[in-house]
Amino acid sequence: MSRISDYWIAPYIKETVTLYDLSFDHPSLRREITIAIVSDLHAGLPFMPLSRIRRIVETTNALARDVTLFLGDLNAEANRFQRPLPLDDVTDVLGSLSAPLGVYGVLGNHDWWDDPATQNRTQELPSVADSLSAAGLQMLENEVIVLPEPCRGIVLAGLGDQEAYRGDSRQTHVGRDDLTKTLAQIPDGAFTILMAHEPDVFAKLPSRVQLTLSGHTHGGQVRLFGRTPVVPSDFGNRYVYGHVVEGNKHLIVSGGLGCSKAPLRFGVIPEIVHLTLTPTN
């Protein structure tokens, strides 16, 4: 019964905390840093009500963390299975996220797609961006910040969404990402953490971006025998979930918390990610 519960019932009533411990030999990573990650809420009724979001925030705030990150996709898309919640109600709750060195975020594709004014190019950024900023999150759109002491030397970058303007297929979506602009802002010698909602950008990142944090895939949302039949990525299962290492670069893909399109998760329990970075030098 517990196995059935984990696969079918858990996606609608509970979350897990997934732990990652990574070690880096880098002169700018001088102390251990802990990061809590919330991604892909898709807030809406009946599966992600405000009461559940409050619990997610409380669980996240109870973790030992220097920084908390939100990796995009705030609200649920309106369809026959679910209806989104009022935006300000959701951001008021998410605004209770806290961390000693700050709470930061990037936008996801659904934050763009569900905003008609940005899709028809009459508004620069989705309303979600202003609402999250007003709630206390520092949103990064092709921007970089240097974390304050005692983590100075660690850079946090936020890439614009790679599928911001919706097309007829993934190949025809148009992005707001400007990787060249973002990388140009990174100081020489910094230890760099990049927030990118979609993980596909990882394939073309230079090695000076040591760590990339992504969501978007929901871990595949349906996972059978360690594989996912449909993944919203040009790389299939390569970047679907978890810790990926290519050369000297590391990628963490969160399975997220909510559901997209259909309220179905199988083999992928909703998660909050807790990440510990430890210097080896």
UniProtKB/TrEMBL annotation:
User: Which protein is depicted?
Assistant: Metallophosphoesterase
Superkingdom field: Bacteria
Pfam family of the protein (one): Metallophos
- An example Gene Ontology molecular-function term: UDP-2,3-diacylglucosamine hydrolase activity
- Record keywords, A-Z: Hydrolase, Metal-binding
Fetch the InterPro entries from UniProt: Calcineurin-like_PHP, Metallo-depent_PP-like, Metallophosphoesterase_sf
| Keyword Transcription assigned | no
Q: Which GO terms describe its cellular component?
A: membrane
Q: Which organism is it from?
A: Litoreibacter roseus
Chain ranges of the Calcineurin-like phosphoesterase domain: 34-219
Protein's GO biological process: lipid A biosynthetic process
Gene3D superfamilies, alphabetically? 3.60.21.10
